[in-house]
Design goal:
It is built from 14 helices and 12 strands. The chain is of the alpha+beta class.
Length: 416
């Protein structure tokens, strides 16, 4: 690209960004809301500042995408992580090639069965600038380059590795596993301490040692029983976790996995052929009702009372009636589109069963999670290359999550 072309592109992006800002200012002014602090800092990540405008735009984007959980909490964490990802990319000189951003936007828009142009128009109609969408996609694409560049040579999935997975568990479509879990909370400012503990637990080689660590460190209800959970069908598990678990030997502990508000570790205790025909999950219909108060005694009592009141997910509409729409998330999603911690909890449930193991808003909101329906279809033959890619991505995601957690711990983060 020539210097003149680069300058033209830059002026276009600046012009578009300023146009979006002016539109937001006019909107705020029309509503008698002060726009004075639009460019005031919302978050500072190292030397990088996230403005109030960026924060408001990311919140709005998440609302339009109907992302589960508190949009402000998620936006805050995403923007912090994006700044860390971009700085890591800058340090190694990672850049996007011509057309990569456009391809990434097209792939993202396709999830909603829209073209990139249609998706951008829909966002604009909802008050989200295209630059906000660009920034969201760009950070993810650059981070992928960083992780692959740093760890790609360490992830070599051989035919023997694939044979081992298939020999141990077929495609995983008719296998169930017995695992133990540990969830270490990561409240703001304590991520480094949590990561250090997780790294120690990952080196445990005995069932007894993992159980002791679960009783001492795990915030999950299962911690009291040494982290042990009942048998789980592999097809019901989130894809990334599925490949992690299938890659473990009995007694082996996974690498630390970062999820919202915690670091998770899993130990495989047993694996066997399940008593069902090979199948795959095509979608999960679930409901998440949010209760203020986190895991306080009063909120847990309220959740227990609610559990005895509702029989199906539809009953939650009556419970949420008259409250803000944000207190209830309900809908069907593909397994890969559901947050990992939510998908993992859903994997433990039967239809109309409830979990209250999760929280949001730094532990201040309890998630009343209910499985409405799990849609499945018969599994076909195993695609070895697809399985190879899944194993590679799972390992790279694990490496990336650990690196991001390390960057958080090493960076001074200020929230205004």
């Amino acid at each position: 690209m020539t210097y003149r072309a680069q300058m033209t592109t830059t002026r276009f992006h600046v012009s578009r960004f300023i146009g979006a800002v002016l539109a937001l200012v006019l909107t705020l002014a029309a509503g008698n809301v002060s726009a004075q602090g639009l460019f005031a800092p919302a978050i500072k990540v190292g030397d990088e500042v996230v403005t109030q405008f960026e924060f408001q735009q990311r919140v709005r984007l998440l609302e339009v995408l109907n992302a589960p959980g508190d949009p402000e909490e998620i936006a805050q964490q995403q923007l912090i992580d994006d700044r860390l990802r971009l700085e890591a990319a800058r340090q190694v000189g990672a850049e996007l090639e011509e057309g990569e951003l456009a391809t990434g936007k097209t792939e993202f828009a396709a999830r909603a069965n829209l073209t990139s142009e249609q998706f951008v128009q829909a966002l604009a109609g909802a008050g989200v600038a295209e630059q906000t969408f660009d920034d969201f996609v760009r950070a993810g694409l650059l981070w992928r380059k960083v992780v692959r560049g740093r760890y790609g040579r360490l992830v070599d999935i051989t035919d023997r590795d694939i044979d081992q997975v298939l020999t141990t568990s077929g495609s995983g479509d008719n296998v169930r596993v017995l695992i133990s879990e540990i969830f270490i909370p990561t409240p703001p400012g304590q991520e480094g301490q949590a990561q250090a503990i997780a790294s120690q637990i990952a080196r445990i080689t005995t069932l007894e040692g993992f159980a002791a660590a679960a009783r001492e460190y795990s915030a999950a209800p299962s911690g009291r029983s040494g982290g042990r959970v009942n048998w789980m069908n592999v097809p019901d598990m989130p894809p990334a976790l599925r490949q992690v678990i299938l890659g473990l030997k009995v007694g082996e502990v996974s690498s630390p996995l970062t999820i919202p508000g915690a670091i998770a570790l899993f130990q495989l205790r047993a694996i066997e052929e399940g008593e069902f025909k090979p199948r795959k999950v095509t979608g999960i219909d679930y409901a998440a009702y949010y209760l203020a108060g986190g895991r306080s005694e009063a909120t847990l009592a309220e959740a227990a009372k609610l559990r005895n009141t509702v029989d199906t997910c539809d009953d939650l509409y009556g419970v949420a009636k008259g409250q803000p729409p944000s207190v209830l998330d309900r809908g069907e999603k593909a397994l890969g589109e559901i947050p990992t911690d939510v998908a993992y909890e859903l994997a433990k449930l039967d239809t109309n069963e409830v979990s209250t193991a999760l929280t949001r808003s730094n532990g201040q909101t309890l998630v009343f999670l209910m499985l409405c329906k799990r849609n499945t279809e018969a599994a076909e033959g195993v695609d070895r290359e697809e399985l190879r890619a899944q194993l590679q991505n799972a390992k790279l995601e694990s490496y990336g999550a650990t690196l991001l957690e390390q960057l958080r711990a090493e960076t001074r983060i200020v929230i205004y």
